[in-house]
Every structure is written in C-alpha cells, then in structure tokens.
C-alpha cells in the first residue's frame, strides 16, 4: 500500500463526517435565521399598518370630537370649560349652574323648556329616573336669572290652600343658593291651576324667601316664577293615574340678586360670572309634612352632563386636545384634554413578571428601530368649531407611541412563538447531534482506528485486527444501532474467514514442504501473496468498508351591509325612476316600461343605494320572467306616501319562501340564479340588500304573487314640497 492510499484511508472518512456535520448545522442555522427574518418582516409590516391605521383613527377621532362639539350638548361643554377648583370646599352634593347655549329659557312652556334642556344636555341624571338641570342663559341682558329644571317621580301633589300660612301642609320645592358668602333660599308650594290636557296636573310654584334663620317671609317673591306639570303613566305600571306616582316636571326661574346687580352695574358686564364654579345650588322636592324629600339634588349616584373632560375617554394614551376661542383676547388654550393612561395588560399570566417586563422592553426597543415610511411626520389635526357663542379652534396632537404600545403587547406575545420555534429548532438540532451525529462520530472514529491499525501493522497478523471494533455502547433498536451491529457482525465474519484462510495456507505450506522444495517455494509464494497487506481480499474488505461508510453517510432522514351609513337627501322620484328604466338595457335588462304620475314626487333617499335596490329587483324580475314579456315599473303617490311597483310575468314565488325571501342566504324562486347561469352564485343576497337599504331610508319593500307573475312594492314617506 502506497502512502497516498494510506492517507486516503485515514483522512477521507473524517472529511465526509465534517461535511455532513457542517451541512446539518448550516441547515439549522438557516432555519433559525429564516424564522427571525420572517418575524422581523411581519413585525415591520404590522408596524407600518398599525401606524397607518393610527393616523386614520386619529383623524376619525378628531372628526367625531368636532361633530360632538358642534351639537348643542357639545356647545354646552364649550361654554363650560373645566375650571380650577374653588378655594373653599363646596357643600356636599351641591350643583353648580352651567351656561346654556341659549340666551334664556322659556320656562313657562312645558314642551319648549323640556326640549331645550334635552337639546342642551345640561341635565344631571339621578337614580329612579330623575334629572335636574341648573343653568343660566348665555345673554346677561336676559336678567341674570338661574334656571332650575328637572323631573322626578312623585305622588299626586297636594296643593297649597290660599291663605294657609303653614307651607308644610302642601307639596313644595325647596331651593338654596350659596354665592360669595351669601345664602338665598326659597320655598315654593304647589298651587293648582286648571289643567290643559287630560290626566295632566298643572300648577304654579309660588316662591317665598327663606331668611338666614330659616323663617319664611309671608309675601311671595315677585321675580320668582315656577311651574309644575305631572302626567304620563304610573311609575309602578298601575292604571289609577289619580292616585299613583307619576313623573313630575318642574321649571323654575330664580332671581339671584347679586347676579342681577352685576348685570345692571356695568354697561358691558362680564358674563358668565367668573365664579360660576363657586355657585352652590341645592334643590329638594318635598312631600307634605316632615317626610324624607321625594327628590334631593344632593343625592349620591348622580351622573353629570357631558363636559370637555369626558373627551379624554375617546383619546388614546399620549394624545392631547387643545381648545382655543378664536375671538378671545387671550392666547391661552381654553382647555387641554389628554388621553387617560391605560394599564398595560400582562403579556403572559403564567410567566414571571420580570420575564414579561424584559420581553416587553426588548420588543419596544426593536419596534423603535424598525424603519417605516413617514415615521418622522408629526400627527396633528385642526378643526374649527363655529357656534352662536363664537368660534373655537380644536387642535389635536397624536402620539404614535400609542400605536407602538398596542403593537408591542401583541408583538411580545408573538415573540413567545418565535422563541418556541427557535427552541424547537435547537432541540431538534441537539437531538440530531446527540443521537445521530455523535454516534456516527464514535462509530467513524472506531472504524478509522481499526483501519489504521490494520494499515500500519499489516504484517503482524492483520486478520486479528478486524475483531477489535467495539460497539457495545452503540447498540440500540434504532436504525443506527442496527447498522453498527450489522457492521460489527460483518467484520467478525471477515475476521473468521481470514483466520480460516490463514490456517488453510499454513496447511498447504506444510503439504508443499512435504512434497518437495521445488514445488514448495511457489506454493509458499502463493500463500505469502494471499497474506500480504495488498491482497485483493483485503482491498475488497476496505472497499466494502468504505462503501458501507458512504452508504451510511448518505442514508440520513408541514367576515355589511347592515353597518352601511346612507347619506339621505331629497330626491325627485319620478325623474329618477324614468332614468333608471331608460338605463336598464345597459345593465342587460330589456323592455322595462315605466309608468309615472307626470308630476314631481319628492322623497328622502340616497340616490345610489336606491338605484341598487331597483336594480336588484329588476335583475330578479329579468331572470324569472317569461321570454318576450315586459317588466312594468309604476310610480304612484298620495299626500303622505310614494309607492313604486315592479311587476313581471313569470313563475310565482314558492309559498313557503314568500315571507322569507328578503332574509340573507334564503335563495328562492326570485333571489336565486338559474342552474345554467354561471355568472352569479346562488347566495340569496340581492333582496336582502334591497330590504336593508329600504329600511335605512325609512321605507319598506314587500313581494307578493299576483295572477301571472310577481309584484314587488316599495314605499317611501313623501316629503312635502
């Protein structure tokens, strides 16, 4: 054997093992890198989507806030911005008056004052269906009065008898006002007046001033005006309206002298008063006698009216709104509202908090470093609110960290899956390294050691070297253990065969020596030839061993339609239907005949959704009419209603489906596609869309079988012109 052959026999198995090991490690490394790369790519896409959605959501929030501030309740909040807390504590349960978006209240008219309070949204809501609004008008020249309007459940009021000095014998209203260290108090007993409606009790509330010592003055206060109305059903559901408790609505105008003096003392009085938040008002509705009040404004559980501070609930953490009055001399913002900080939910309830905090910190740091488009642009928006009391500028400042915070929570949870995938890859790699690569390494080293021993010391009984391969610790029931066992058994048989060959050669040698020297020499040369290290049998064994190694090395082993908002406007229905009928052939619907009233019929509808409704019905009529027959589109109207009829001549709707044909997913004779029509699947959707849109436009749609065909009827409330 040459030195090149010996080097190949010694080194090639190690090189093959190194390549295999490098291949496996490279594969697992690439899998780990691919997992991390996919996670980063998805995270970057999610960050870009999250920031885009955040900007859109912030703009939508600004629009909603602006729309909210434009209605009367929002104007009430603008006129009553958050004020600094008073230096002296207010009385427990005291109510502070609000500035109304109206100059004054028509307190004498039940319907007008109730409507004004509801529009302004100034009422504090109490348990048991009670409410109270304490307010002043926006115009100081209306007299500087304080208005007290409210309602509460009450038994039938007991009227005050004229000339009776004991006011406690009647149902009465008690009002107390604390302002600038002065106290104003009134007791207003109920005085019955003729009723203006059936089952309605109506009466005046005549105010008597109450001194500081609690005594009631004998003469009523001239500027104190009040009314009480009680009507409606019984609170307990009973039928005896003359004896049961019903809702009592009261409306009172309070003459607070100090406010009136402020108005008349200056040609341009400051209004509203600067100390509005220090005016304490308490209202009590008292039954006859000394019983507990039927209603007390100091009662716990009241819900205050809408204010600017309530806008913080619509803001995300970090977002800020600033309100500034455009025509004001001061440049300071009227109010600054910030989004309330939300508690970050735990990433994982079963992991230690320290691990969750660490993962959250790492993910937030990674999110900050992921580049996205327009990340450096500030998130700001400005809206102008124009009201009768003046114009206001609403400026909003967004904070994209809110999007990052929300994304970080999700990304931190997803990171657990990434970590789990990497751990699974590491576990699989470790299992392959320990159970396969390590055992292959041991088997290869031991085989190389046997081969090297035979190659280096081939003259010292080489056959005995084959049996030195130790595989006791490599035996197992798996494929590699079976392979090692088979290899050891094969080498054992080779060793036994070579031993027998050596014994046979020795016997032949002895025989030939007995025959004679002349014959013995060639035979011994032949025996020596079979025993040499480069014998063919030995090379066969080495080749077979190499082939087994090569074979072993290569044998290594996956959801609106109902949420749609329509833009309703007045629509001239006659011209609209005429145009739809004229355009029907372009939609593949021929021979549509329109019969109109010849006069303008105005309804409130959204033009395009209404055209969808008509088209859906026409398409159903087109599919199920007899060939050559027309579709009739007829409009009729009276003083209050407009009716559109669509009729075809064709098959009738199945009786069991006539009441369900407009339900989603119900496919009947007039909402299904024929089996031969492959352009539209049978979803049962068209008539559902038609009914949904009609309901949103305040109309109705019905279908009925008529002789010879089907008629679909659409009705609309008519708008007076």
Task: Give an account of the 3D structure.
This protein is an alpha+beta fold. 39% of the residues lie in helices and 21% in strands. It has twelve helices and 24 strands. Strand 12 (280-286) and strand 13 form a beta hairpin. The radius of gyration is 48 Å and the shape is extended.
How are the secondary structure elements laid out?
Elements: H1 3-70, H2 72-79, E1 98-99, H3 110-120, E2 124-126, E3 130-136, E4 146-154, E5 172-179, E6 182-193, E7 201-205, E8 208-210, E9 216-220, E10 225-231, E11 246-254, H4 257-265, E12 280-286, E13 295-296, E14 320-325, E15 335-338, H5 353-369, E16 380-387, E17 390-397, H6 401-456, H7 479-515, H8 517-531, H9 536-553, E18 569-572, H10 573-583, E19 592-595, E20 602-605, H11 607-624, E21 631-637, E22 641-649, H12 686-696, E23 700-706, E24 709-717
Helix pairs in contact: 1-2, 1-6, 1-9, 5-6, 7-8, 11-12
Descriptive keywords:
721 residues; 13-stranded mixed β-sheet; 24 strands; 5-stranded mixed β-sheet; alpha+beta
In short:
By secondary structure, the protein is α+β, with helices and mostly antiparallel strands. The protein has 12 helices and 24 strands. The longest helix has 68 residues, at 3-70.
User: Radius of gyration, Cα only, in angstroms?
Assistant: 48 Å
The percentage of residues in β strands lies in 15-25%
Global morphology = extended
Q: Specify the number of helices.
A: 12
